[in-house]
Amino acid sequence: SKNYFDACYLLAEALDKDRRYLKALEYYAIYYQHIRIFLHQRDFAQELKNKIVKTYKTKVCRLKNKSDCIQYYLRLLSQVSFTNKEKAKILKDMVKLYLENNEFDKAVATIEEALKLDPRLTGLKQIKTQLQTMEKS
Fold first, then answer.
1. Rounded to an integer, what distance in angstroms lies between the CA atom of residue 56 and that of residue 49?
2. In angstroms, rounded to a whole number, what is the distance separating the alpha carbons of residues 74 and 11?
3. Contact 22, 72 (CB under 8 A)
4. For residue 26, with 0-12 CB atoms within 10 Å meaning exposed, 13-18 middle and 19 or more buried, which class applies?
5. Which of 25, 98, 113, 129 has the fewest CB atoms inside 10 Å of its own CB, making it the most exposed?
6. pLDDT band at residue 128, thresholds of 50, 70 and 90?
7. Backbone angles phi, psi at 36, to 5 degrees
């Protein structure tokens, strides 16, 4: 099984260089789920998780429309384990995408979910207040 996971990582690197980001991210996620449990690889696992999130934000979502990006973020949340703070930050990015798509109900629900995970997350309370005043008018 070790060879399988190492092959996943090598394949992900090759796909990333070939700009086939979605497929690369699948293999990165497989490798991440494998190495995150080993104490001696925790630092590398955190680096890999950061790389996965950065690739979603900077490469995948730049190329796709907002609806697709939301689906990719949902996939990211299901493929990779996050702390509550990290998950809340991703949900904050999703809120922005929902707002750009004029999906205000989903944006409000996502704001509430993010604030449950991290009540100190900045900016979301202001957005929620603005959405509530828009609904009233």
1. 11
2. 23
3. yes
4. middle
5. 129
6. confident
7. -65, -20
Q: What mean pLDDT do residues 120-126 have?
A: 82
Cα-Cα-Cα-Cα dihedral sign, residues 31, 36, 42, 46: positive
Full-model pTM? 0.82
- What is the chain's length? 137
Residue-wise DSSP of 38-55: -GGGHHHHHHHHHHHHHH
Around Cβ 81, how many Cβ atoms within 10 Å? 14
Which amino acid would we find at residue 96? K
Mean pLDDT of the region 123-130: 80
